[in-house]
Amino acid sequence: MKLLGKQTIYGIVIVLACLALAIFLTVNSVWLFDINIHALKLTKATGLTPTQMHQDYVRIVAYLQLPWIPSLKLHFFFSSAKGLQHFHDVKGLIMFNNIVGLILVPVGGYLLHQLNKKSLTWLLITPIKVITTVSLVIIALMFVNFEQIFIAFHEVLFRNQDWIFDPNTDPVINMLPDTFFMECFLLFFVFFFGALGIIYWKGRQSLHKL
Fold it and tell me: Transmembrane segments in this chain: where (predicted)?
C-alpha cells in the first residue's frame, strides 16, 4: 500500500511537470509559426510580409509569457475588445502553467533523481503507459475531427465566447488557421511523449537492475 501511494504521488507530480514543460516549450516554438508562413500561404491570407507576421507573432508570445507586459499591442493588426480579452484570458492560463512549471519541474526532477538512486523508477512505468494510451486516443480523435476537439478544448478552458474570432474585427486570426493550431497540439505531444519516453527508459533500466 505504501509503495502504491508513492507510485501515485510521484507519478502525478512528474507527469504534471512534463505537461507544464511541454506546454511552455510549445508556446515558445516561434519557429513552427515561421515554417507555416510559407507552408500555409499566410502572406496571401493576411496581405503582410513574413517579417511583419513574425514580429507580431513574437509580440503575442511575449505578451502571453511575460507578466510585465500589461497589454497586447500588435503593429500590423487591429483588435476588438473581445479579441483582446481572449488574449488576456489565455495569458492567465499560460502564466498559471509557468508558475506550476517553475515549482513542479524542479520537484519532479528531484523525485525522479531519488527514484533513480533507489532503482525505483520502474514505479512510473504503469502511469506512463496509461497516460500515453489516453494521449494516443486524443490524438486519434484530433485526426478524425480536430474542429470538434478544438471547440471542446475552448469550452472547457473558457467561460465566454471571446475565443470565436471574426476576421473582420480581429484579422490576426487570418495568420492563425486551424491547421496551425493542430500542429501546435501535435508538437505539444511530441515534447510530452519525449519527456515520458526518457522516464520510461529510465524505468526499464531500473527493472533490469532488479
Answer: 12-33, 93-113, 120-144, 180-201
